[in-house]
């Protein structure tokens, strides 16, 4: 029950911090170098999840997150920094701007970032808050550790002086980074913006602080081999982080009901069962509301990994989420997703993103029909989708309606079949409707339905300066050929009499064009094609 009111208490707490006795911040702080790592999953699984904000929203973000690119020779976490590539800096600030657009604070947030070849080959990056401060809010709860950026936002004051709020190291030893920010990550490249966005999530507070003691020195918990602990030691007590105050077991009991340190905690960190309950879940109100009303499962593999266990979403449950424990080749995830709700739950404020983030959208011909499928990575106030069709790319008709999820930051999959497409080229788009009546449109997909009777081949595709035609043997009469751009404007018209005739496309801009040809003898459509004009 107490988790349901945690977010409201944080808001009230933030408004009362100037009143004596409402908030107590320990003058000391912990800097335990709590670092979360992101390893590579060495398989190609292309995916693009675009940012939840438009470019304008990102650039006009109310927050401010700046990246301090450490110079060559400086050290961080024991790693020696190298000179940052300019392209990597651009991608890093792109990622920082996404978080800045999602989180509001009157305090500046600075991230020290090191470009180092000292990381293990399979480690893409590692990061964490520069400091944790301990604070309490009696009578609601006792001492709790906060990442400094969050606590500064809550109390609206700089409590860290000139020190940065976060620290991160990235692997300079890899040659397979992709520094673009367009989501077009090649299948054999690693999207740097995604890695930086992920690590910033840890620095801002998406992380647990867990260890399992090995019984040797230095002491991880209480020196007892096999004991797990959560939080940090202060005045003889292991006090939790604010993240941990939202965590519960699979049956709904609070993780803080377990002795800390204890063998039971170690069992839970390794995916085991305690008291009939298995798994650890984040159970904040906003997280649950965006996850179908259910707590979100955390990553607790059978082999404990400090810096990974308990500080990521479960890989199998949330394979398209930013804060999963591994990133694959070809994956560009530029949306904080469910992690944003988790940060809101621990006290960050933010503003409303665009209504729908479309992560996949396709149309294909199947046995004379058209199968349309799309996936959303997040939804806000989404009433649903009109699936629209056009013959020329400018005049649209609705062929079906699909109700939306409404509110979600998890993948939602939709599909519709157009049973009676037009012969030839069909254009499709999604018209997304908000609950307040606003409309947004997807990109356009094209599908060609085969035409019965003699057809004319159009080549090459993509096309350069000349478009050629190959007529069937014994084809009689000419062909009236028209060329349209995707706005439905006719840009060329020509009569084709033989294979020697061409349409000249020099001077036309790059993009897609509809080619339509009708037999002058029979009036029958013999050409339906979409070609791409290359530069």
Descriptive account of the structure:
The chain is mainly β and 535 residues long. The chain has three domains: 2-345, no CATH class; 356-448, Immunoglobulins (Immunoglobulin-like), CATH 2.60.40; 455-533, Immunoglobulin-like (Sandwich), CATH 2.60.40. The protein is built from eight helices and 37 strands. Helix 3 (86-102) packs across helix 5 (192-204). The longest helix has 17 residues, at 86-102. 44% of the residues are buried.
Give the class from helix and strand content and strand pairing.
mainly beta
* Number of domain modules: 3
Number of strands: 37
pLDDT < 50 runs, ≥5 residues: 1-23
For the sheet with most strands, the description reads: 6 strands, mixed
Integer average pLDDT: 85
The strand line-up of the biggest sheet is: 3-6-10-7-2-22
Query: What general outline do the C-alpha atoms trace?
Result: elongated
Strand content of the residues, in percent?
A: 35-45%
Determine Rg (CA atoms, Å). 28 Å
Estimated helix fraction? 10-25%
Q: What is the count of helical runs?
A: 8
Termini, distance in Å? 61 Å
